[in-house]
Amino acid sequence: MFACNGSSLEACGLLEPTETEMQEADTALMPTTLRVALAAIMIFMITIGFLGNGIVCLIVYQKPAMRSAINLLLATLAFSDIMLSLLCMPFTAVTLATTDWSFGMGFCRVSVMLYWLFVLEGVSILLIISVDRFLIIVQRQDKLTPHRAKILIGASWALSLCVSLPSLVGWRTAGIGAQVPQCILGYSESLADRGYTVLLAVAVFFVPFGVMLYSYLCILNTVRRNALRIHNHTSEGSVAISHVSKLGLTGLQRPQVNIDMSFKTRAFTTILILFIGFSVCWLPHTVVSLLSVFSRRFYLSPAFYPVSIGALWLSYLKAVFNPVIYCWRIRKFREACLEFMPKTFHLCPKIPGRSRRRIRPSNIYVCSSETQSSV
């Protein structure tokens, strides 16, 4: 997320821009009111991202019943979003409001490394969750235990650190351009810089997107086939019941419908929404990053500044998106949030007995042994 300084263009492999190009680049800055508004919205995003993801981590930490494998992964995803909100977003908000990076070149490299570290970790966790849902729903293999989840979490942190560390040790030359007062990816003709940018794009978006898309297409096909089985079993059961009634054998036990489908299929919709949010938030940023490094014309164009800021702002939105989805989709998360809130904020009293199921799931589904997932 960093660009080369105008005084070191030759060292970065850039051609010296003409005076006309620099004047056009200077006019690309957004209006002050828009920049201040975006900075204010980003401060609100920081607050929501910190509080929402903090509650996720607190719930998993304080409630032993919530420490299933999937919840440990969600807590790790929330922790990476907290770190992104606290260690990256505030500096972007200040720079966006003041149009000047005043934190030094050294911290520019550090902020770039931290940004990609937390982003890569969040993407890795989403990838692990997607593969886990694929194995459970499509392959009927539930192999992810809390112990294995912890091992995968440690491995994902190590891999994310290895991919993001080159930006700190100087694989790329960090700097801030006059026309780009941000630590963002800038144009370079260096093969190492371009190769590293492609590596980041592949690791952050293209590989996770491809794997998750394939997993979800397979899951959708499996869910569709299960729905057809449910319909067929229900139709056969209705015919049998009707036949028994006509014979006058009402005292006999009705045939039960056993459906070979895991309860964890319900988690698929939630994870699918997270995948859609990931795609919407990260596709623009990936495209802009590649264009910034490979296209000198785009990098020096008047549209570069607003487009790059918009893509960066959208990528930060993912840190706020996840806890909102948890609160919307996960009943246990909503209940835990209400427990942490003061009683004065509870608008509606809890009605006893309403949360009980009228139909026992065991009468309908044949479930796997592990049903602890909260999603």
TrEMBL record:
SMART domains: 7TM_GPCR_Srsx (SM01381). GO terms for biological process: G protein-coupled receptor signaling pathway. PROSITE patterns: G_PROTEIN_RECEP_F1_2. Keywords: Cell membrane, G-protein coupled receptor, Glycoprotein, Membrane, Receptor, Transducer, Transmembrane, Transmembrane helix. Residues 52-326 form the G-protein coupled receptors family 1 profile domain. The keyword Transmembrane applies. The chain crosses the membrane at residues 36-60, 72-93, 113-131, 151-171, 196-219, 271-291, 303-325. It holds the Pfam family 7tm_1. Signal peptide: none annotated. It is found in: Cell membrane. GO terms for molecular function: G protein-coupled receptor activity. GO terms for cellular component: plasma membrane. The keyword Repeat does not apply. It is a multi-pass membrane protein. This is Probable G-protein coupled receptor 45. It comes from Danio rerio (Zebrafish). The gene is gpr45.
